[in-house]
Fold:
Amino acid sequence: MKWTCKGHEMDEFAQSLKEKFHKSIYIFGAGQVGKNTGKSVKELGLLGGFIDNNVEQQGNVLLGCIIMSLEEYMFKISDAAIVIGVSEKYSCEIAEQLEKKGLVHGKDFFFDREFHEKILPIISAYFLNKSYMNVTQITVTERCTLKCKKCAHACYNVGYQAHDLDISEVYKSADMFFAKVDYINEFALIGGEPLLYKDLSKAIAYIGNKYRRKIGVFSITTNGTIIPNEEILKTCKKYQVLFRISNYSKALPQLRQSYEKSIKKLEEFEVEYKLYEEDGFWIDYGFDYLNNEMDEEKLIQTFDRCLTPCREVRGNKLYFCVMARSVSDNLHFNEGQDDYLDLEQLKGDDYKKVLLEFNLGYSEKGYLDMCHRCHGLDEKNYPIPIAEQLYREHKRYGR
Structure:
């Protein structure tokens, strides 16, 4: 979307939301998803409480709130809104339950992802004068222990001797970002394989020490081929870092042993982790072979249909799509060199609304240069096997 009224693009929607929005938010779901959402809502002073269908959960206290049943909510609470804080697998089931009670989507309740990506950022900017974002990442290294054919970041084309992001740039990235953002749902350190980064513990400690209170979930995404060392584990425990472990055991069965060793270490040091299901598929975005000729209108259409949630901060530059930036660099396309928001230039009374608009997909051009190399929203029509290897190299880096 092109900026036409920078700093005021969401005024009309915010006004309609003000009429619908209720000052107290209840989270439907007292599991990990609901708890994480509750943290963000509580930080912004909007948490009313929790709802859960599990009778054993009802009556317990979570984040200072007593968990109630939906019936109790309907009987006691008015002028409030519900966020369905469960995994997408169960969210439609909960939505049907709420609709049967006469509650309306977009007025009385919201889904977790739409709430974090659009609703809460607008509420924060317009009614609380705070900047809120859902997810942003720092790519500490483009190197990886695997050579996946269809890596969404094209890390297969990065040599083992390639330079990582200097630790001073990691510090600058965090400083620039949190100078403008009051709170973020999840802040992640990613790669490549971040456990290859020699200064990972320093990066965690710096961000954790200065900005942990502004982060809901502080995470590291790893492919599980490297067992984290004691220094990293102690630092992760101190700053409550979540390890997100990609599961490629269907394609690479030998990784199961590595996962087991990593999990044993994580549990020993009481570090939270999530090992994903091994079944599933990847998406072929087309970066390595697409080169579509598109006019401006088509590029904007492609971008608007996609609106990826994958933000990246790199120094003073906030990139809308981390994949567009990394693929352009790693495959040497040299496209989209100006496709970022300069955080140093965010000044004035309306900068939080400008940041909000950029995060929602507004920019001067209305698209990214790399859009012509991507299937965009049609990506779902191009499923591929997970983690097929160009050649096996991961043993070289394991330790």
Summary: Confidence is low (pLDDT under 50) at residues 393-399.
